[in-house]
């Protein structure tokens, strides 16, 4: 999930959750007999949510219904955008492999991820590896995260990954390119005493 979508998702879920908990908790408390605060809309447990006067207050105003419809339309569009952004798959289910004879084959995206993760994890000085494929079916991209041992040179590890695991995956899948974003982190370790 992209960072912008992730932030919007968390903010919307947080605001919605807080509003529902505050409103539902206060209605439940008043319904169970708790005294209503002075700022509360209703005075007691037998009060209705919307009285006849509240429901019909703005009915004759010419601006009321266009504003209500516009606000609801914007809300529906925002919620649809949010739903599409959350539900859209970022990881390809399959990678198309050109077999060279006019036909093609499909390689499961998770299988390619697993093989890349295993081969990257076997590199010298790599403590842990994680690979994720993104983008469309015909042009996948890889996001690689490596945790390196303290003694490993990051440039050497990156070169070994590029010429090894990524090249093998690109050639095996018959892809002309396999763009990669690689994040390197060091394993946390204690300081060593030098004598």
Instruction: Note the run of SSEs as H and E.
Output: HHHEEHEEHE
Strand content: 15-25%
Main beta-sheet annotation: 3 strands, mixed
Which residues sit in consecutive blocks of at least 5 with pLDDT less than 50?
Answer: none
Quick overview:
The chain is an alpha+beta fold and 195 residues long.
How does this model look, in words?
- There is one protein chain.
- It contains 5 helices and 5 strands, in the order H-H-H-E-E-H-E-E-H-E.
- The chain has helices spanning 3-31, 52-56, 64-87, 109-121, 154-173; strands spanning 94-98, 104-108, 126-134, 141-148, 180-186.
- Strands 3-4-5 form a 3-stranded mixed beta sheet. Strands 1-2 form a two-stranded antiparallel ribbon.
- Helix 4 (109-121) packs antiparallel against helix 5 (154-173).
- The longest helix is centred in the first third of the chain and has 29 residues, at 3-31.
- The two termini are 48 Å apart.
- The mean pLDDT is 81.
Question: What is the topological layout?
Answer:
Layout: H1 3-31, H2 52-56, H3 64-87, E1 94-98, E2 104-108, H4 109-121, E3 126-134, E4 141-148, H5 154-173, E5 180-186
Parallel strand pairs: 4-5
Antiparallel strand pairs: 1-2, 3-4
Helix pairs in contact: 4-5
Observed structural traits:
195 residues; alpha+beta; 5 helices
């Amino acid at each position: 999930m992209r960072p912008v979508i992730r932030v919007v998702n968390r903010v919307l879920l947080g605001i919605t959750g807080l509003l529902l908990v505050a409103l539902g908790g206060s209605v439940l408390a008043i319904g169970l007999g708790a005294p209503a605060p002075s700022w509360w809309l209703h005075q007691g447990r037998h009060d209705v949510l919307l009285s006849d006067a509240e429901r019909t207050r703005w009915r004759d105003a010419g601006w009321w219904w266009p504003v209500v419809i516009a606000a609801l339309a914007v809300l529906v569009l925002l919620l649809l955008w949010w739903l599409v952004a959350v539900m859209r798959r970022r990881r390809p289910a399959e990678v198309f492999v050109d077999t060279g004879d006019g036909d093609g084959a499909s390689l499961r995206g998770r299988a390619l991820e697993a093989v890349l993760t295993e081969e990257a994890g076997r590199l010298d000085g790599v403590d842990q590896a994680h690979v994720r494929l993104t983008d469309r079916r015909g042009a996948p991209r890889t996001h690689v995260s490596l945790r390196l041992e303290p003694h490993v040179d990051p440039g050497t590890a990156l070169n070994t990954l590029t010429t090894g695991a990524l090249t093998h995956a690109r050639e095996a899948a018959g892809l002309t390119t396999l763009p990669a974003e690689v994040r390197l982190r060091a394993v946390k370790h204690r300081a060593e005493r030098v004598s």
